Amino acid sequence: MQSDTLLHVANFSTLFVCMVLKFPQIFALVRAKSPSGISLNSVLLELIGFIIFVTYQMYYDYPPPTYLEYPILIAQDVILLLLILHYNGSLRLSLLYALLLVGGWRLLTVERWIIDLAMSLCTFISAASKLAQLQCMWSSKDAGQVSALTWAMGTYTCIARIYTTTVTTGDMQVLVRFVAMTLLNLWVLLTVVYYQQRRSSSSSSKKYD
After folding, report:
1. Which of 5, 62, 75, 144 has its CA 20 to 30 Å from the CA of residue 165?
2. Chain centre to alpha carbon of residue 187
3. Considering Cα of 185, then 191, then 193, then 199, what sign does the dihedral take?
4. Could you give the CA distance from residue 82 to residue 76 in angstroms, rounded to a whole number?
5. What does pLDDT average to in each consecutive run of 10 residues of the chain (209 residues)?
6. Are 173 and 123 within 8 A, CB to CB?
7. What are the phi and psi torsion angles at 164 (to 5°)?
């Protein structure tokens, strides 16, 4: 009974957090009217990873509560992608991205081996999205408009999913993915906080000079 309650709490708290996970990032971007510090490649790779993951879960009839947040995350990532393209002056590319993403999604379920192969690569794709964001910040030595709150919430949802996957499906591929994503999300979060604190310290020093 206690484990069932904990499972429900983990599932519904994850769903609730994911409903607003990208909001801080979206609001920060709109407020600044600039995507500085936010990696376009990171968002694209994350979107691809989400599409593969939710398609895999649906293909194998996994319990909906274990992946229900992913359509919500996909929708938020699409909004984020459109905003980045808009502020970069590249909105015309959105149609090309849409065709490639929808076409790729349709291809995933043509054959069983395709979705299995895609899922085996999903962890690497999602990891690459986090590394792309890290590389973007390392190269500029600034977090720009990257939201620490969004990455903190992302870290929590991955930790919750480690638990829910363990007690429901026990799928090792999915577990490995969530463990890797937890560590990488935490790495991005700590990097964002570091650069934000450094920028704050720099601003304070200039103020008193």
Report:
1. 75
2. 13
3. negative
4. 10
5. 80 91 94 92 95 92 84 94 93 91 91 92 93 95 92 95 89 89 96 91 62
6. yes
7. -65, -35
Predicted pLDDT of residue 200: 81
Structure tokens given for 89: 């002056």
Q: CA nearest 35: which of 81, 73, 101, 74? A: 81
Sequence-ordered list of residues with C-beta below 8 angstroms from that of 117, at least 6 positions apart, any chain: none
DSSP H or E run through 146: none
Contact (Cβ atoms closer than 8 angstroms) between residue 185 and residue 149: no
Q: Which amino acid is at 83?
A: L
d(C-alpha 106, C-alpha 143), whole Å: 35
Kindly give the residue spans of alpha helices, DSSP state H, lying in 60-111.
Answer: 69-87, 94-108
CA-to-CA separations, 92 to 37, 98, 188, in angstroms, rounded: 22, 11, 30
Joined tokens for residue 39: 């990696």
Kindly report the pTM of this predicted structure.
0.87
